[in-house]
Design brief:
One of its GO terms (molecular function) is oxidoreductase activity. The protein has 270 residues and is an all-alpha fold. It contains eight helices and no strands. The chain has a single domain, classed as Up-down Bundle (Four Helix Bundle (Hemerythrin (Met), subunit A)), CATH 1.20.120. The structure holds protoporphyrin IX containing FE. Protoporphyrin IX containing FE binds next to α3, α5, α6 and α7.
């Protein structure tokens, strides 16, 4: 595996004016393990998108009400909550693209560094838009009379989620001002870059945690589980006793975890 500098990812390159960094960012120096991890990440991203649609189209997810499957952004619609997990999953996929923009071969082999930076910034911008709509959807599903009022911010999921979302706004603004539009001096950019990278990583991992906690919240609301009359010494044999929607949500949570592991391997440095 080559050093980060050889790959053209060096911090110095991020601090240069865009015109000084026109060379493509080759990814051929990634180890075969990292290339495999990057490929599997793309497969998992597609799988998560399919999985979340399968979940919100399963009537068990909507307490058995077939009319409430699918999703909507109309605050009066009973489907509005479902937009929350869908758009949060879309955000996670977009963040994955943003995080790996400097690593994924199909991006770096085709585009010059300034264009890769545009892909990186646009992915995070779209993730921000998508998650803002996702938050609108969940608050609408709790605060509109026709939905039946529900408490807000009662769960650990909601507090972790709002904290990570706030951090994302901050990191996006600093990244845009300092590195996107380069409105600060090179010295300030040099000081900010390690923090931008650190918070980018924390936000990405925190997002995964928030998603898993969100799936857990919904599993709790849906009372996921099954009854036993003797010691459950072989739970695998009984796994299908869990309602299908619960198994599907467990699957999505494990896919989030696997994506985080693979993304970490793909972006690993010497
Ligand atoms: C598949 C992913 C997700 C699922 C299944 C999910 C599920 C839920 C559920 C069931 C609620 C209402 C109950 C509660 O507050 O726990 C909720 C609320 C909330 N979620 Fe998520 N969520 C997901 C992803 C996320 C993510 C990634 C974030 C932010 C980073 C987030 C932020 C919030 C916030 C702030 C609330 C509170 C809204 C309120 O209290 O009205 N969620 N989510």
């Amino acid at each position: 595996m080559s050093s980060n500098k050889q790959r053209g990812h060096s911090m110095e390159a991020d601090l240069l004016p865009t015109s000084s960094a026109q060379t493509p960012t080759p990814s051929s120096q990634l180890s075969s393990l990292q290339l495999t991890a990057a490929t599997l990440t793309q497969v998992l991203c597609a799988t998560m998108l399919v999985q979340v649609f399968v979940i919100i189209n399963n009537a068990e997810f909507t307490f058995g009400n077939v009319d409430n499957t699918g999703f909507s952004l109309d605050k009066e619609s009973k489907k509005v909550f479902n937009a929350h997990p869908v758009l949060m999953t879309v955000s996670f996929v977009l963040m994955t693209v943003g995080k790996l923009a400097f690593t994924l071969p199909f991006i770096t082999n085709r585009l010059s560094r300034p264009k890769v930076k545009v892909v990186h910034g646009s992915s995070w911008l779209l993730a921000l838009v998508s998650s803002s709509l996702a938050l609108y959807a969940v608050f609408a599903s709790h605060n509109v009379e026709s939905q039946g009022y529900k408490a807000n911010m009662y769960s650990l999921h909601s507090w972790v989620g709002i904290a990570v979302f706030a951090a994302m706004i901050g990191n996006f603004l600093i990244g845009s001002v300092a590195f996107g539009f380069q409105l600060v001096s090179p010295e300030t950019r040099a000081k900010l870059m390690p923090f931008h990278k650190l918070f980018g990583n924390l936000i990405y991992y925190g997002w995964g945690v928030a998603m898993i906690l969100g799936l857990l919240s919904r599993s709790w609301i849906l009372s996921c589980g099954y009854s036993v009359t003797e010691a459950d010494v072989n739970p695998v044999a009984h796994y299908n006793d869990l309602p299908e929607t619960c198994r599907q949500m467990n699957g999505l949570g494990m896919e989030v975890l696997a994506t985080i592991v693979l993304v970490s391997v793909a972006s690993m440095k010497n």
